[in-house]
Input
Amino acid sequence: MSTIRFKAVNKTFDRKPLPIDVTGKRSEIFGANVFNELVMRQVMSNEAFKSVMSAIEGGMKIDRKLADEIASAMKNWAITKGATHYTHWFQPLTGATAEKHDSFFEPINNSQAVEKFGGHQLVQQEPDASSFPHGGIRNTFEARGYTAWDPTSPAFVYGTTLCIPTVFVSYTGEALDNKAPLLRALQAVDNAATEVARYFDKSVSKVNATLGWEQEYFLIDKALAYSRPDIVLAGRTLLGHSPAKGQQLDDHYFGSIPDRVLNFMRELENDCVKLGIPVKTRHNEVAPNQFELAPLFEEANLAVDHNSLLMDLMDKTADKHNFKVLFHEKPFVGVNGSGKHNNWSLATNNGTNLLSPGTTPTKNLQFLTFFINTIKAVHDNEDLIRASVASATNDHRLGAGEAPPSVISVFIGSQLTKVLDELEDVSKGKLSPQEKTDLKLNVVGKIPEILLDNTDRNRTSSFAFTGNKFEFRAVGSKSNCAKPMTVLNTIVAKQLKEFKNEVDELIEKKNLKKDEAIFNVLREYIKASKKIRFEGDGYSLAWEKEAEKRGLSNSKNTPQALKAVVSKKAIDLYEEMGVMNSVEIIARQEIELEEYAHKIQIEGRVLGDIARNHVIPTAIKYQNTLIQNVKGLKEVFGSDFKKLAPEQIDLIEEISNHISEINSKVKFMIEERKSANKLEKAQLKAEAYCNKVLPYFEQIRYHCDKLELLVDDNIWPLTKYRELLFTK
Ligand code: ADP
Ligand code: MG
Output
């Protein structure tokens, strides 16, 4: 009983909720560690403050002299918060966040030193970041990368470090991170949506995309998690038989939160609030030891940063509380996986949610405009939407019959469907007075009531309208929201730009009134985007068949899904909207394909190692015990022993069969890996890993899991599902 498994299990028996120091009202500590507007007003000259605000609101450049002043104010404030270092905090294409800490401390001679932080250190840095993925962009010496301050996301003190959110770009201007394209996409949607919003309200001067993410995760006892090589190296279990009890009793969902977990959550939330992350809800999720945390929605760039920061903070806080947090989309088979729903909308500088109907017919037409344009955008670019959530880890979840399918469809509920059906009949060209009255009273006028009692929810839809926002449900729990947000905002920007052109043309050339022109264009969009709308069960096989008939794409894996990203259509779109150029797009796709292949490669190695070095030796050990037993029976009972040991003899044979299956499958898998590694093209390599290597995982697992059921529990080396999932 000396295996790491039992040591880990024993450890969990002594676990107590960790005492935490969480006092005071959240409203009082909200943003305490953030260099926000309020702080800036207090610690900067009026001129410097105004310059930062105009950089935030209008993207104006900050003057060098003022940058020095801002940096100095930032540093002094950070020091009062306990900061000794600063870092340009950025999001390289690994999907995580990166930071390299530099000290404020600077000796001026051998007996004196000062705390220094100037404008140029604030605005631009050159991290020695040659090891971040760049997809060939930085192959030349000239094309080094630098980080540049993003003033739209406020600096914050995290631990003892002042973190300055930055973009990471090459000297030739190509984005090397997730933030730069996101900022460009947000700019594009701002431009296009502002123009359209001004049809309804001339005072609109800016439109922000809003994002409210919902983060699902598993929380596993640290000792148990670290006892499993697969969890440590791949973030998920590659083996493990389902426990007798899973989630079938639904007794975890919204249940009372265990004390140890609650203390973790309270400390985490407390730190989040100090960092300005407006965390709001927490609850148990469907699977055992699965939880969810969601904030109030925010401007999308800030929300993306906050999600990245949260994931980092969760890791650290969990560790302190003797947990390991699993962000993997599918850490365990047989129970639900985790997602990160992205609730998205557009809001004007006046605070109007453009996906929310108002009290006047005009406001309702505004709602319809943004609502229908979004549907049309998703319709026209469903393949890009799908690709934006593609990853080796999310592949286990999409289409697994419990999570959004890999087919992208839009759910709007039966009542809004009726509204769109009626709008489809709006007659072409000029509307008669009667038609206008009808539209006003019976269609557009009814929308607010409809949405008030719109309780329609469809949990099986990948892209659902939920009252005053769209909820993109296919995003993986591990992914950086920047990717789906970049795509969504880009396609909506493009769509709104087109809409504006079409409406203006009808007004100018056909002499239509504005409302008539809008109705005319919307009517065509409703017709043209019908096939993306689906109200039924998105998890059903029938829908897959129906989707195929409709000509919707259904990319079941990442290598296939990512093809859409480099299509001519996609490159034209990104270039037109100024979000990415072809070099950036191709580089990104290559990075993602490489990452995919690496992930499967690592998993394959880990699986081979566990199967051969843990499972097989244990099975042989147990088999030897059985053989000893049979031998003993033979010694004692002579030729009668067979009658006494039929089960043992069967077991001995069964174990041998599983062992030989595992051995041969592992051998084949290794051969396939070798062949895959020889392929040079990223696409082909990823496909080989997907189609040739990955299928062995399930086969190897099958035999290992059978052995788990056969072998004496006392010597099984791998921590079992019941221990991982039901230890609180
Ligand atoms: P649910 O959709 O689960 O019923 P809510 O309606 O409360 O729950 O919203 C869920 C999430 O949607 C929250 O994280 C919230 O911040 C976000 N959300 C609400 N309104 C918006 C909006 N206008 N833009 C973006 N996200 C939003
Ligand atoms: Mg939700």
Q: What stands out?
A: The chain has a mean pLDDT of 91. The longest strand covers residues 207-221. The CA atoms of residues 20 and 392 lie 37 Å apart.
